Amino acid sequence: MHVLSPINNGLFRRAISGSEGPTSMGTLTVKPQDTAKALGAAVGCDTSDTTAMVECMRSKDVNELYSASRSRDVSAPPDSLYKFVPTVDSVFAPKTPRELLQEGNFERRDYMLGIVSSEGSVLGTSTLNSIHTHADCEAAAADKLRIYEENAAQVTQAVVSEYCSDGHGNHGTSHAERAARFYGDWRFAVPPILDAETYSRLHSGTYFYYFAPRPSFSTRPSYIQAAHGDEKYFLFGPEVNGKTVTSEELEISTRMMVYFSNFMKTGDPNRPDTLPVTWPAYDELGRQYLQLGGMSASSVTSDLYPRQRFFWSQVIPALTTHGSHSHRAAATEKPAAEPPTNDSHGTEVSSGGVDELLQQIQATQYALVGVVVALVVVVSALVCLVGRRLSNSKKLVTKSDKEPMSYHNGSIDTSL
User: Fold this and answer.
1) What is the pLDDT of residues 70-97, one digit of tens each?
2) Is the domain covering 9-21+108-350 a CATH 3.40.50.1820 domain?
3) Could you tell me which residues belong to the region Disordered (predicted)?
């Protein structure tokens, strides 16, 4: 939000967002009143007048407010995953992050975004270890997707079909891993990818990274590779974090420090200090990004998570009645001509109801493309026809100018 807020204009020139973006799900509410009043009541303030309630709450000790906020009587807003999150306040956030990003009425800053390979680890090992069945996976998804409110049932059904089912892409994976993939894609991975695409249209100094290697010191389940936040151990160095690392990990750490410090100095991760692999800027056409790991020419690749990006930016918005939440991600993604059939690891993704919807969306897009092509052909034909007529008219005028007119019997002979 600091990147998009207009009150921050002139205060900083570049920023880095790790494992989230401005439009990440569940981190904004447009319905904060009930939660605020519940907290006010919990500390003994009159909630009938919100102005008086705020003044009363300001007089309370911070420890009293903190203790009350953890009460079961104070619940998260219906459109948020957390109790207290930013809201549109007309000052810091005059509009939603999605609207601010779309309108582009903010200072252009160099911007780096990135994600790790197992963002869903943030669900926590204890939660993941409790997911053993399809029903467990479905329950975990439904618990998070409640923020879609009246659209929650349709969205949950699609997500369960895509992530929790025994489809082709899920063969050989545990139900816990499937739940982790869902939460990671939805909450942390796809929004930054879409945000990078939108932001890159406004400013060329946009860069994206993907941190994939599992740290040698990780104690998480084997299906978790780079967990949410693991890149910080490499970015700030093993000495700072007190971790014992391998020589390869130390090399990754050193290169990350160079890339990131370069970016903060100049807005370009490739200078002033150079590294063997050039990190290209991100744009909506190439979608190139850098894989932080064993550095080689193949570390630069493109089009991260195509299937997931399509699912969350096209399929889910199609299932909602008014896009109350999904529009934040959907608005950044241009419709794909064809829904991807593979995930980032090259495996086929589950078929079923979601794939049918994908086909419907694809058919609609092909129809629109056909209409556009037909219009282009018609317009081209009209342009050619008009051009020929104008050319013939010019020839007639030129010829008549060169041929002298003759008089016969007092009349003008205009024959050619």
Assistant:
1) 999 999 999 999 999 888 888 898 898 9
2) yes
3) 323-351
